Amino acid sequence: SAGFGLSYTNGPIAADAVYQSRTNRGAGSDDINDWMVSGSYDLKVAKLFAVYQAVDNETVANSAADTKLWNVGVTVPVFGNGKVHASYGRLSWDRSNAGDSNAAAVGYTHA
User: Fold this and answer.
1) Has residue 103 got a pLDDT over 80?
2) Is this structure's pTM higher than 0.85?
3) Distance from CA of residue 7 to its chain's centroid?
4) CA nearest neighbour of 1 among 16, 23, 19
5) Residues of 39-77 as b/e, b for ≥16 C-beta within 10 angstroms?
6) Which residues have C-beta within 8 Å of that of residue 62, sequence separation ≥ 6?
7) Phi and psi of 23, rounded to 5°?
């Protein structure tokens, strides 16, 4: 297995990138490679964020497990110490009839 990650933060901007490769996991196994990029921007009245991840699964037993995932969202400060969180995302399967999944979420936190 091998992997690396990078992170960048400057003022209101934050970004991350990660890559991982898993190899030689046993008899009949091949590589599983995945990578992810994410970022956020703080507008002060709201913080926007996004993430994208892809997994390339070359194993014989799990050849239908290639996936792509993305998510976008926002966090808005309210009521002094509170925050409203909202996000929407999608998971897509590349080589199967499993269908895609969508998810939406809304939440509130109070510190």
Assistant:
1) yes
2) no
3) 15
4) 23
5) ebeeeeeebebebebbbebeeeeeeebbbebebebebee
6) none
7) -130, 165
